[in-house]
Amino acid sequence: MSKFAVRVDAAVSALGSGGSAGLDENDFIDASRLVYDGVREIRRAVLMNRTSDDLDTDTEFEPVEDMTMETRSRSSAHTGEHGVDEYPDISGITNAREAMRKMTEEDKRKILQQVELFRREKMTFDNEVAKWDDAGNDIIMLAKHMCMIMLEMTDFTRGRGPLKTTMDVINAAKKISEAGTKLDKLTREIAEQCPESSTKQDLLAYLQRIALYCHQIQITSKVKADVQNISGELIVSGLDSATSLIQAAKNLMNAVVLTVKASYVASTKYTRQGTIASPIVVWRMKAPEKKPLIRPEKPEEVRAKVRRGSQKKQPSPIHALAEFQSPADNV
């Protein structure tokens, strides 16, 4: 950016003096391209990180009709309660997600504090779980699936995300419980092949936590936000249920992370004599993202005019030899 500013100042000064002989057009074009490339990369990064969950209103984003099941959330893909008016006696609010948006600023601030704690736990989840390849490892697949649903539930408490009605949240809680049951069954098979050790005891204790927090999420998801119209002002009271839901999701995510780590240790470090040789799950690190070996050619560079750059001409061999003098010439 500083290089571009210097070139602009030089161009303005040259034009003001009535001459442009000292301007280097190629140098000015290169400086402008650096600024353009930087702005384009920033815009691309923002668009790639921007999802429908980050939008504040439904009118900002129109969902694609042919969106596949892989790109949609499994928890919200099967809900069909979006057309039900949960608050028929209240005008301006039709579902629980809209009610969450009408909460007071103080309640929103308290919910945001709990969400920040959940995001910290999500960072731990990404460091410990997302590094594993889910191909051939159902434990990692179930853990990622549960994490995805928990993210949607926390977005719901802020009035965002694909979950709209209370029934959507209840169905999402049921899916978390089903995934937790499958995770419990699969992990217990690993524990059975593990000899008696502290790792086995810890693994079984973590499974009990998962069952407990799944049950808490099911209970808190059924609590509907209460909306009252007092003197034309909407009063939404759902802070306790929202914070309880976020805390249960955070605790569940922590239990899932501990279960994954203990399962890895139990299935790779401790093996009982005479057990089946084939592993229950395959623990393999996720391969890093592939990067191109060569820099891709930009479309605008293909259509750009080829300008001849300034380069130093190589002297001919005759002129180069003429620079040397023989000893006889010095005499």
UniProtKB/TrEMBL annotation:
Region (Disordered) location: 66-89, 292-331
BP GO annotations: cell migration; cell-cell adhesion
Transmembrane portions of the chain: none
Top-rank taxon, per record: Eukaryota
Keyword Cytoplasm: yes
Principal subcellular localization: other
Pfam families named in the record: Vinculin
Keyword Cytoplasm among UniProt keywords: yes
Localization: Cell junction; Cytoplasm, Cytoskeleton
One cellular-component annotation, GO: cytoskeleton
Regions of compositional bias (Basic and acidic residues) in chain numbering: 69-85, 292-304
Gene3D superfamilies: Alpha-catenin/vinculin-like
GO molecular function: actin filament binding; beta-catenin binding; cadherin binding
Keywords: Cell adhesion, Cell junction, Cytoplasm, Cytoskeleton
Family that this chain belongs to: Belongs to the vinculin/alpha-catenin family.
Name the UniProt record assigns to this protein: Catenin alpha
Source organism of this protein record: Pieris macdunnoughi
